[in-house]
Amino acid sequence: MPELDAGSNLILIIDDSVDTIRLLSSMLKDQGKILFATNGETGIRLAQMQQPTLILLDVEMAGMNGYEVCAALKTDPTTQDCAVIIVTANTGMEHEIAALEAGAVDFITKPFNPPVVRARVQTHLRLQQHTAMMRQLANRDGLTGLYNRRYLDEVLSLEFERHRRQQLPLALAIIDVDHFKAYNDHYGHPQGDVCLQSVATAISTVARRPGERVARYGGEEFAVILPHTDAAGAERYGRWLCQLVRDLQIPHQSSATAPTVTISVGLAAVVPPVEGSAQQLIAAADQALYLAKTAGRNRAIVNNWP
Ligand SMILES: Nc1nc2c(ncn2[C@@H]2O[C@H](COP(=O)(O)OP(=O)(O)OP(=O)(O)O)[C@@H](O)[C@H]2O)c(=O)[nH]1
Questions:
Q1: Are residues 213 and 277 both part of a single domain?
Q2: Same domain for 164 and 258?
Q3: Is residue 30 part of a domain?
Q4: Are residues 100 and 159 in the same domain?
Q5: Are residues 212 and 236 in the same domain?
Q6: Is residue 106 part of a domain?
Q7: Disulfide-capable partner of 234 in 42, 51, 193, 267 (CB 3.0 to 4.6 Å)?
């Protein structure tokens, strides 16, 4: 079996007993970096910020119980990929089923049998590492290393649902390199690839907040999901992106817009309504992109929700 790369593992223990946290930490200290929270709400916030590899989650806690915490983690796109092992003193089939139904991958009972705890945790850490590697390959665009369109569509649907539940604004930016056919014709396709890579890197440097995801959406098109962003924030973001690409100063002698490479950005923002869909958000951002192109390119335009 391949060696476990413990250095990259982050294990979050959510348990209201400090003694249990101490005990589990001492059993697992050589399997990864340990974080802990003493209630469900703090545990969820920590998981959203740190995205641990594995979460050991106590069932019986004041406030949210472990099953509720697990269900919340599994419906949040920022934490849904963390493996959750439920920890409980309750033995019996119905508890095991409840844990698996809430989205947990395994179940550990108290009192702990240290070799069993270590073996189970190690197995799931190893599985997580393999899954992460496969996911990385399946979700990425080969040329730029950004997420691909399939992944972005998937995440956008989940984010749309999450923002609808929370009644928070969600924005989407669609970015298109201006006169890119002319760029290829003038500088050649391989140089065109280099240009796309530079633009991709520039765009990804501005996506740093949790949940922001950047994808290559088509040939010379990119998209960014902007959680918790309203129309005013989206417009600022779009203008910032345009400036960032202008600042790259990539020569583009055959552009009718500017002597350097520029982008047009279409944005749409909405607090998702009950009857709305992620597809409508894409259509609204696409429409804004069309407006940005026809208004002269090298600019960002925000569309109103249809
Ligand atoms: N080098 C390179 N070019 C690509 C790639 N994918 C798509 N393209 C090119 O991107 C160009 C897109 O051209 P158009 O859709 O006509 O758009 P445009 O020339 O940018 O014009 P506007 O968008 O209206 O400013 C085409 O020439 C494609 O061949 C790629 O991976 N590498």
A1: yes
A2: yes
A3: yes
A4: no
A5: yes
A6: yes
A7: 267
**For the purposes of burial, counting CB atoms within 10 Å of the CB of 188, is it exposed (0-12), middle (13-18) or buried (19 or more)?**
exposed
Ligand 1: does its nearest atom lie under 6 Å from the Cβ of 193?
Answer: yes
Q: pLDDT tens for residues 252-290?
A: 999 999 999 999 999 999 999 999 999 999 999 999 999
Distance CA 298, CA 238 (A): 10
Q: Is the CB of 220 under 6 A from ligand 1?
A: yes
CATH number of domain containing 35 = 3.40.50.2300
pTM of the model: 0.68
Question: What ipTM, to 2 d.p.?
Answer: 0.97
Mutate to test the pocket of ligand 1, among 176, 179, 184, 286 (most ligand atoms within 8 A of CB): 184
- 292 Cβ inside 6 Å of ligand 1: no
Residues 50 and 134 in one domain: yes
Residue 210 pairs with which residues in a beta bridge? none
- CA of residue 180 to ligand 1 center, whole Å: 5
The model's pLDDT over 173-228, given as tens digits with 9 standing for 90+, comes to 999 999 999 999 999 999 999 999 999 999 998 877 778 999 999 999 999 999 99
The Å distance, Cα 220 to ligand 1 centre, comes to 5
